[in-house]
Amino acid sequence: MISITDLFKSFGDEAVLKKVNTVFDKGKTNLIIGQSGSGKTVFMKCLVGLLEPDSGSILYDDTNFTALTGHQRTDIRKKMGMLFQGSALFDSLTVEENVIFPLEMFNKHMSRKEKLDRANFCLDRVNIHNVNHLYPAEISGGMKKRVAIARAIANSPDYLFCDEPNSGLDPQTAILIDKLISEITEEFQMTTVVNTHDMNSVMEIGQHVVFLHKGNLWWEGTAEEILTSGNKEVEHFVYASELMMKIKNTKRSS
Amino acid sequence: MKLFYHLGRYMLLLVTILRRPQNAKIYRQKIIVEMDNLGLESLGIVTIISVFMGAVVTIQTAFNTDHPLLPIYAVGFATRQSIILEFSPTIISLILAGKVGSRIASEIGTMRVTEQIDALEVMGINSAGYLILPKVLASMIINPMLVIISIFLGVFGGWLASAFTGVIPLSHYIYGILFEFSQFDIFYALIKTVVFAFLITSISGYFGFYTRGGALEVGHSSTKAVVFSSIYIIIFNLILTQILLV
């Protein structure tokens, strides 16, 4: 579980996150949504410690992450896995080496065979086969995302963060990635936080949805509830596409 | 004021780099890989430049010291001293600043703009230490070896010039390169090389690590890395010469 209290972050005079409060539950897929510039990326970067909030606290279960110094955060970070927007696979390492990398760094007592078995299990779990010895530049965008998920779960993390996992993917692959994130969240009982502005993802996997607007937590609820939120800004966002408008009209007529 | 900002940030980066590695075995393996990438891959250019520069120094010295009061073997002596004291440690380091410095800055800069460094940070890895320390140590080990090779090849280049152009008799050249040889000169050259290796890799690592933006900024970082490494090599060359030789 991740508890966020009064999280505030500004750049100069511009406040990007204005006292955000929420709780991300274990075993759930938690989505952060909002328009571009609403503060989603800054929020996620604060959660994983890539940015320092000005005030407020982030609790990982019982540990106050914001109160720890860089070095002290290592233990919590070992429990984190992250899928970056551009996958962020290490170019100089093969697919297999990328997945083994976190195991090599922190599991000194694991044998080489155990690490290989774990890497292959993770690659198998994300349906990646026969590309173990290829480099990231030699595989497709969808495969890169799946390898990045395999790397993120290699160390059996308690918390999984996904920054725009569907960006740059075709609709079919995007749905596959969404489903994969949802499945592994339930399977490994992780606290998953997904940063997205894709309404398909919201409807597909959003168990808990947080809507950010101009740095404020504007609305939160489930994917079903978002369709009938009654909130002007949320409706503007949700029904921006014609498809979603059709869904809305169908719901009304039925 | 910007100078102090960069100096302060560079010092803080050095402190971060020198923190205890999370997995010493991986760092050791990376040092070996970097010795190959940064050192052995530079052997070709070091060989070519050293042989030709040695030959040119010999021919120029021979033409410019053609005086009855100067012994002929002075050409060999001057060639050896020029190569050991200045050419091999300083000029080779400047060339490596261009080759190795741009490579380090662009490699780390690209990792920064493609979020690979963020990925390391989120995993709980000291990204600066993991990426820069093996390069610094590898260069500090392999560059002195390159400079020793460069010294031999430079002197050999002078021998080739003497043998094939006949600017001075070979026996005089050989007498000159052996004349009043001081081991301290080699020690001085190696100290300079180690300091220059540290400057090249840490400054280039600094510019790569703090790259912000995209491909264009990676190019800028790479250029800055070469320019500033070269400037600091020249400055420290003067300081070390003053300290060690005077």
Mean pLDDT of chain A: 89
Give the C-alpha Rg of chain B. Answer: 21 Å
Annotation field: number of helices of chain A: 10
* Tally of structural domains of chain A: 2
Which stretches of chain B are low in confidence, meaning pLDDT under 50 for 5 or more residues running? none
SSE pattern of chain B: HHHHHHHHH
CATH class type of the largest domain in chain A: Alpha Beta
N-C termini distance of chain A: 38 Å
First-to-last CA distance of chain B: 33 Å
Number of domains of chain B: 1
In the CATH hierarchy, the architecture of the largest domain in chain A is 3-Layer(aba) Sandwich
**How many extended strands of chain B?**
0
Any descriptors?
heterodimer, A: 254 residues, alpha/beta, Rossmann fold, 2 domains, 6-stranded mixed beta sheet, 10 strands, 24% strand, globular, B: 246 residues, mainly alpha, 9 helices, 0% strand, elongated
Please characterize this protein's 3D structure.
The complex is a heterodimer of chains A (254) and B (246). Chain A folds into two domains: 2-79 and 158-253, Rossmann fold (3-Layer(aba) Sandwich), CATH 3.40.50; 90-156, no CATH class. Chain A has ten helices and ten strands. Chain A has helices spanning 40-48, 74-77, 95-106, 112-125, 141-153, 171-187, 199-205, 223-226, 232-238, 242-253; strands at 2-11, 14-24, 29-33, 55-60, 63-64, 80-83, 159-163, 191-195, 208-213, 216-221. In chain A, the strands form two sheets. Chain A has a six-stranded mixed sheet with strand order 6-7-8-3-9-10. A four-stranded antiparallel sheet of chain A has the order 2-1-4-5, with helices on one face. In chain A, a hairpin with a 2-residue loop joins strand 1 and strand 2 (14-24). In chain A, helix 3 (95-106) crosses helix 4 (112-125), helix 5 (141-153) packs parallel to helix 6 (171-187) and helix 6 packs parallel to helix 7. Chain A starts with a strand and ends with a helix. Chain B has one domain (29-245). Chain B is built from nine helices and no strands. Chain B has helices at 2-17, 24-39, 43-64, 74-113, 116-122, 127-165, 170-178, 183-209, 215-245. In chain B, helix 3 (43-64) packs antiparallel against helix 4 (74-113). The longest helix of chain B is centred in the middle third of the chain and has 40 residues, at 74-113. Chain B is elongated. The two termini of chain B are 33 Å apart. The A-B interface holds A 48-50, 71, 73-78, 80, 82, 84-86, 88-91, 101-102, 104-106, 108, 155, 161 and B 19, 22-23, 25-26, 110-111, 114-116, 118-119, 121-125.
